[in-house]
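Translate sequence into structure tokens.
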Amino acid sequence: MARNAILVASVAVGAFALGAQNRYSAAEQAAVLSVVRDYALRYTRSLPNFTCIQSTRQTMTRPIALVGGPPGFPLRVDEIEEQLSFVNLREIRTLIKLNGNSPPAGRRAQAGTVSRGEFGNLLDTIFNPETHAEIRWDHETTLDRRRVNVLAFHVPQSSGYVLVESKRQTRVPFEGLVYADYQTGTVVRIEMKCSGIPVKSEYRSLSLTLDYKATKVAGREYVLPWHSFLRYEMTGGG
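Result follows.
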């Protein structure tokens, strides 16, 4: 039986529409991409060492109509707390509570584990020229009353997203949109979905929306991941 999972994470401190209105000249589009790329490649190196708590609500749902509930019927809901430390450009995560209690020894934070590193690795992967991602200006819009440029991207399998399965890891291409402040190039949202997932993979689909927000650390303001919504569908096989 297949299973769906929805993870919504808050950090304390379907398809993506392409080909929208083209109001910028080629030179203007290139200038926007240059500003956002520069911001993205400097982002991780600009962060201080810090520790915070990441709270996650994980909901396992029923993908098809079965006895006991309709499609989307919650089978299980877990409240997860992790200590997240960012030290010397690396993330260190420790599960500290599961449904308000100390977790059993060896318990993982998530039933379906995916590659981590959202504090900087996603931006590095998308914008580092060595990953050979395809990136283009897509459109301009407003997000939370903020004027933003939206860039569409596609990252090839060679630099893709790692899905951690029960017996193996699978690297797959991914694509989506990056929302960046119109004036500063500050990235405020990433939307992505995996593509080209092999038929034999335990995963059927995976998508992520990651929002950033200005947060004070040691008296200084930094733009950090604030809220994420991860949705994936898996089978019981492998």
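Note: Confidence is low (pLDDT under 50) at residues 8-21, 111-115.
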